[in-house]
Amino acid sequence: MQFDDVILGRRSIRGYKPDPVPKELIAEIIGLAMRAPSSMNTQPWNFYVITGEPLDRIRAGNTERMVAGIPQSREFRTGQAFAGKHRDRQVGVAKQLFSAMGIERDNTEKRQDWVLRGFRQFDAPVCVIITYDRVLDGSDDTPFDCGAVATALVNATWSRGLGAVINSQGIMQSPVVREHAGIADDQVIMKSIALGWPDETFPANAVVSERKSVEEATVFVGFEK
Known about the structure:
Largest sheet: 4 strands, antiparallel
Number of strands: 4
Strand content: 5-15%
């Protein structure tokens, strides 16, 4: 693929085929992603790639704890709930997804199942947990750098014919993730990414989220026109 094809064609994939993904292909993708820029070349990121029975245990633990009402314990701060135009965009993409999946507003069962899909890593065959070195905790540059490598990873995934979705729900029960992924104590759990072969029959995979315009997002300074 050309660069533009990847950027313009990539979609968040929330439905996957059960087919395994070769370890060598994932390693190739991570190698590409790690060419992402980082502050003063600190490269704070590490990756835990999980599949099979350990991933099934994470899915089960996440789901059981959330259904039981155990408060979330995400290690990276969530901040305040979105409001205003940011909340509008959040609601907007949710409406797109629910419409594609045929989930009516008053269908609480289907809406609950959709939420739990996130805690199950969208039933993807692979989950990549991005962590950063705890010694860097408190640095604003570090999560910025992890965001860069996460973006590079999902784009590299798409360029290889796979799909991915960056997912916070999958790490909201961090003790479960830390236990079954064997995450070292010197690491902070930053984000999870579901990864696998896209199921083209899954309606939500066709959703292309809306983007604000360049004019809305950009201020040009010092240009003649």
